[in-house]
């Protein structure tokens, strides 16, 4: 066996480790070893997000609640496909919850196992994660395409609106396409005139099937 | 096949991850011989309850009979070979009935009835012939509610196989005031595009978290700090994520214990004893159940992960378990379960559930990056860019006791992988009894 010593990478390594990754200008506040790895962005730049439609786009009849709700759901899906993570999070109320239960019969986002169950702080972590230059799993090209349909308003009471819909999401990652589908249930609240999500429940029809790889971000 | 030439003390040949013939040999010599985890007794609470389970390449059924005993049998009708049960789990009543020609079987696999049985009179397949039964696993045993089966009639018993790794199940159960856990009947299944060994190596690889998981660790740390500034404290589950971005030095400071059977323990305090009212209430319950001294010993066990080689990773302090089912050299299914501590307050379950949802679910913010590493790892090993996989970190510094147990005070030492491959070699080359 070759017993020749491996050249020490000491000085090189020190040079690398002394450099902080600048993450939203807050790196100094998190002095961990992890941050001291210099990111290389070569080949890992991401496409600029596509145009993000405004809330009013496509909404001809402003007074038509059915159409307003539909447009709201379409907007949310488009923001997700455009990787406009903050725009997506902003559609939730401050106490909003985004929840994909593991099974259709579940009723509590906090007491039963989920695919994901996130409040706004946790959604912010997910956003921060995918925007980090060294979110390795985000490096390969990936895109999603949502289609939302069957939008039905089930109940309107005061400022609250209950909506159910269906969705289909195709996801491209590297050279593979995956399909996710299921039901959305949005519990909406009108806040200062705008619709906001208090609870979005996502029942994936394939929630208990094997996942080939895991979810990239959200559905 | 010159298998012994592929395993050196400090490196292994890439073929052990990529060669289909070696994979086939692993299934025969390891997975279809060792004690394989089938499930928890609480998955089949009632007579007739069954759960399908894969042992090596064999589709099996774990089932509870009328006398409440648990059996593990091949899911195959001895008549024409058809799988008897087509579902993943359910209740089959008092008998299994084949959908093809209605052969039926008692819940231990013995044949119960054959339609128009007269037609078999005078043939080799009459009712007294054991070939008429659904074939049972050679051995079935359980420890603290966790059921294992071995397809080999000979070999060490379950407790010998588990050895010190049995602490995984003790640690889980001892944290319950009743000394028992029950399964939460949701199994997440995730397929990795890599050899099963990537998973086993990764579980006790303490150098990778702050590299692989830095994006999540840093993002979580930022929110955690903000909540602490705003509210004085942040829920424990933020720490679950932010801890992944601890410094290299901190990770190197944890210890690993590496057993000759390939099992291993990564030691570390998981931060599960904050002095909040829920934890204090829970700890009081444990002290009432076991006495001050024992309860303290249970609560202060330093365990991050326990590995049962070659297929199980148990995070006992949080009652979670991942079980590997190798499908191909480059395809591995993991089954992900968690358990409730019987008699513990709901708040303690919620605490573990956050970990399950954040780290072990199919929307994991942690394993997403592990899986990406392993996929790229498999591709790298399939390439002609090199032949060897290096496990040299801290090689030469390993300390072994007289039982062959390797201890390392460097969490990042690759003693973990070196030790696993010595066990692999014993199974694969020396034909060690499983």
Please, could you describe this protein's structure?
The complex is a heterodimer of chains A (219) and B (434). With 219 residues, chain A is α+β, with helices and mostly antiparallel strands. Helices cover 20% and strands 34% of the residues of chain A. Chain A has a domain at 83-219: Nuclear Transport Factor 2, Chain: A. Chain A has a 6-stranded mixed β-sheet with strand order 2-1-6-5-4-3. In chain A, a hairpin with a 2-residue loop joins strand 3 and strand 4 (160-173). Chain A starts with 9 loop residues before the first helix and ends in a 7-residue tail after the last strand. In chain B, 32% of the residues lie in helices and 24% in strands. Chain B has helices at residues 15-18, 20-31, 158-162, 167-174, 196-203, 209-212, 214-231, 236-242, 248-252, 277-290, 292-299, 346-360, 367-382, 415-428; strands at residues 7-8, 11-13, 36-40, 49-55, 58-64, 70-74, 89-91, 96-97, 104-105, 111-113, 139-143, 146-150, 181-192, 255-258, 264-267, 305-308, 312-315, 320-328, 331-341, 388-390, 399-400, 406-408. In chain B, the strands form 5 sheets. Chain B has a 9-stranded antiparallel β-sheet, sandwiched between helices. The longest helix of chain B is centred in the middle third of the chain and has 18 residues, at 214-231. Chain B is globular and about 80 Å long.
CATH top level assignment of the largest domain in chain B: Alpha Beta
Count every helix of chain B, treating DSSP H or I runs of 4 or more residues as helices. 14
Helix content of chain B: 25-40%
Low-confidence segments of chain A: 7-45, 57-62
The biggest sheet of chain A amounts to:
6 strands, mixed
The pLDDT mean of chain B sits at 95
- Tell me the series of helices and strands of chain A, N- to C-terminal: HHHEEHEEEEE
Task: Going across the biggest sheet of chain B, name each strand in turn.
Answer: 13-19-18-17-16-15-14-22-21
Report the CATH C-level class of the domain at 83-219 in chain A: Alpha Beta
CATH architecture of the largest domain in chain B: Alpha-Beta Complex
Secondary-structure arrangement, i.e. CATH architecture of the domain at 83-219 in chain A: Roll
Number of domains of chain B: 2
Derived from helix and strand composition plus strand pairing, the structural class of chain B reads: alpha+beta
Strand fraction of chain A: 25-35%
Q: Care to count the β-strands of chain B?
A: 22
Major β-sheet annotation of chain B: 9 strands, antiparallel
Write the CATH fold name of the domain at 83-219 in chain A.
Nuclear Transport Factor 2, Chain: A
List the strand order in the largest sheet of chain A: 2-1-6-5-4-3
Helix content of chain A: 10-25%
């Amino acid at each position: 066996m070759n017993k020749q010593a491996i050249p020490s990478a000491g000085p090189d390594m020190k040079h690398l480790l002394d450099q902080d990754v600048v993450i939203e200008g807050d790196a100094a506040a998190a002095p961990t070893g992890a941050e001291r790895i210099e990111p290389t962005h070569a080949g890992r730049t991401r496409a600029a997000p596509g145009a993000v439609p405004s809330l009013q786009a496509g909404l001809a009849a402003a007074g038509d609640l059915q159409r307003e709700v539909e447009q709201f759901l379409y907007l949310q899906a488009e923001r997700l496909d455009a990787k406009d993570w903050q725009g997506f999070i902003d559609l939730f109320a401050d106490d909003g919850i985004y929840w994909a239960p593991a099974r259709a019969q579940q009723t509590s986002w906090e007491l039963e196992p989920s695919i994901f169950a996130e409040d706004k702080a946790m959604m912010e972590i997910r956003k921060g994660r995918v925007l980090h230059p060294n979110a390795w799993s985000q490096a390969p090209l990936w895109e999603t395409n949502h289609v939302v349909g069957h939008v039905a308003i089930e109940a309107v009471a005061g400022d609250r609106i209950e909506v159910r819909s269906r969705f289909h999401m195709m996801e491209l990652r590297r050279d593979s396409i995956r399909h996710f589908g299921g039901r959305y249930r949005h519990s909406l609240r009108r806040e200062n005139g705008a619709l906001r999500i208090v609870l979005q429940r996502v029942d994936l029809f394939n929630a208990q099937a094997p996942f080939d790889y895991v979810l990239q971000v959200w559905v | 096949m010159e298998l012994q030439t592929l395993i050196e003390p400090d490196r292994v040949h890439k073929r052990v991850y990529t060669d289909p013939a070696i994979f086939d040999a692993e299934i025969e010599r390891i997975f279809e011989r060792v004690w394989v985890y089938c499930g928890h007794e609480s998955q089949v609470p009632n007579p007739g309850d069954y759960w399908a389970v894969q042992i090596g390449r064999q589709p099996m059924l774990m089932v509870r009979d009328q006398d409440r005993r648990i059996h593990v049998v091949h899911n195959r009708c001895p008549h024409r070979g058809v799988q008897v049960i087509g579902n993943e789990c359910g209740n089959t009543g008092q008998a299994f009935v084949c959908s093809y020609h209605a052969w039926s079987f008692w819940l231990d696999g013995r044949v119960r009835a054959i339609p128009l049985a007269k037609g078999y009179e005078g043939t080799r397949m009459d009712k007294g012939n054991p070939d008429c039964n659904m074939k049972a696993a050679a051995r079935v045993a359980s420890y603290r509610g966790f059921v294992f089966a071995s397809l080999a009639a000979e070999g060490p018993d379950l407790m010998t196989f588990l050895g010190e790794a049995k602490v995984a199940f003790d640690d889980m159960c001892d944290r319950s005031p009743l000394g028992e856990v029950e399964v939460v009947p949701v199994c997440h299944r995730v397929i990795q595009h890599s050899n099963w060994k990537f998973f086993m190596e990764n579980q006790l690889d303490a150098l990778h978290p702050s590299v692989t998981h830095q994006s999540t660790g840093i993002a979580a740390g930022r929110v955690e700090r903000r909540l602490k500034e705003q509210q004085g404290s942040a829920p424990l589950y933020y720490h679950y994520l932010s801890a992944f971005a601890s410094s290299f030095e901190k990770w190197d400071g944890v210890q690993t214990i590496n057993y000759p059977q390939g099992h291993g323990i990564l030691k570390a305090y998981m931060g599960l004893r904050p002095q909040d009212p829920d934890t204090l209430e829970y700890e009081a319950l444990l002290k009432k159940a076991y006495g001050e001294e024992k309860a303290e010993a249970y609560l202060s066990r330093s365990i991050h992960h326990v590995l049962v080689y070659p297929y199980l990773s148990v995070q006992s302090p949080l009652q979670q378990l991942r079980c590997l089912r190798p499908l191909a050299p480059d395809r591995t299914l993991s089954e992900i379960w968690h358990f409730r501590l019987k008699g513990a307050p709901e708040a303690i379950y919620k605490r573990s559930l956050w970990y399950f949802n954040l780290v072990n679910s199919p929307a994991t913010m942690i394993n997403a990056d592990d899986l990406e590493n392993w996929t790229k790892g498999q591709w790298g090993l399939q390439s002609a860019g090199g032949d060897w996989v290096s496990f040299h970190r801290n090689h030469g510094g390993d300390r072994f006791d007289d039982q062959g147990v390797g201890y390392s005070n460097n969490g990042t030492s690759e003693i973990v992988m070196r030790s696993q491959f010595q066990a692999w070699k014993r199974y694969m080359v020396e034909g060690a009894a499983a």
